[in-house]
User: Fold this.
Amino acid sequence: MNIFGIGLPEMALIMVLALLIFGPKKLPEIGRSLGKAIRGFQDASKEFENEFKREAERLEQIVTEPMEAKLEPPSQPVLSPAVTETTAQAETDEVVVAVSPDEVKR
Assistant:
């Protein structure tokens, strides 16, 4: 019997020391309190595990279900091809402005 890496002789020594320190009247109360603490920890652990599994299943469902594609109407009216070509040409033209030194001083 090996609990938490402690063998039977070590466990007996701990029980004898606890009996000597706390006395026979306090020992059952301490055991009950320790049992309740361990039970609370186990319940919290199970609740955390269940919550984690639920979240993992929800995320898996979101990832595996197909996505819906929705087309939205354009927010601005579509320009005709002639207007688009004129706009593209205007954007690529370079504008050169000659400024004389007198105009810069003003």
In short: The CA atoms of residues 1 and 54 lie 36 Å apart.
